[in-house]
Design brief:
Layout lengths: L1 H5 L26 H7 L1 E10 L2 H7 L2 E11 L4 E10 L2 E12 L4 E6 L2 E9 L5 E6 L8 E6 L6 H13 L8 E2 L8 H13 L20
Antiparallel strand pairs: 1-2, 1-8, 1-9, 2-3, 3-4, 4-5, 5-6, 6-7, 7-8
Length: 216
């Protein structure tokens, strides 16, 4: 299914170095072990802007989404496990993301095609951005994630500033609503299954990531 991946990683070329004040909080630096440790744990999809009509139509259906990142530092991979509330029901997706440290990108292969996205960190604790197809004005997108179901006003303002920096309209933001989450029963079921079968495939990490962003 394309939608879960669309919320996490899509194709793009590396972003140009931020030049304007609105871009000051955006960084695209090499991914380190500290970055991966910081990303480990549970995240919530807060909102996004997609100019690609096809992806915009899909994302508009999303009511809520949370997911777990479980990095493997030696293999440069991340186990991605997502709970997606869409059309008043829950969908679960599990896949592996490949980490490309030098250009700060994550990639995934789907049906023989490689999809790549760039990780952008901000100066706000507990948030990050993923930028999509920024070289294409008709398809570019920016999505925003936080370590809690609801972002703070300061964090949301940072997202809006990033959109302005990239020439995107904040009035186009599609927000999620955690009150519409449909996946708690499935999360509990998975937790019980992991307790019964501790040696089975890895599940979401027990501990969360630090709220402090990794040092450059």
């Amino acid at each position: 299914m394309a939608l879960p991946w669309a919320l996490a990683v899509l194709s793009l070329l590396p972003l140009l170095e931020a030049q304007s004040p609105a871009c000051a909080n955006l960084t695209a630096k090499p991914i380190t072990n500290a970055t991966l440790d910081w990303l480990s744990g549970r995240w919530f999809y807060i909102g996004s802007v997609f100019l690609d009509p096809a992806f915009k139509q899909m994302v508009q259906k999303v009511q809520a989404s949370d997911f777990y990142f479980t990095p493997n530092l030696t293999q440069d991979t991340i186990l991605f496990q997502q709970y997606l509330s869409i059309d008043d029901h829950c969908e679960y997706n599990s896949s592996v993301l490949w980490v490309h440290r030098e250009n700060a990108t994550l990639s995934r292969y789907d049906s023989g095609k490689k999809f790549t996205a760039q990780l952008l960190l901000q100066d706000f604790n507990g948030t990050y951005l993923l930028a999509f197809s920024m070289d294409d004005e008709s398809k570019r997108g920016l999505s925003f994630y936080a370590d809690k179901p609801e972002a703070t006003p300061e964090q949301l303002e940072g997202f809006r500033e990033a959109l302005e920096c990239k020439g995107m309209d904040k009035s186009e933001i599609m927000y999620t609503d955690w009150k519409k989450d449909q996946c708690e029963p499935l999360r509990r079921q998975h937790q019980l299954e992991r307790k019964k079968e501790p040696e089975s495939s890895p599940g979401p990490p027990a501990g969360g990531h630090s709220s402090e962003p990794p040092a450059p």
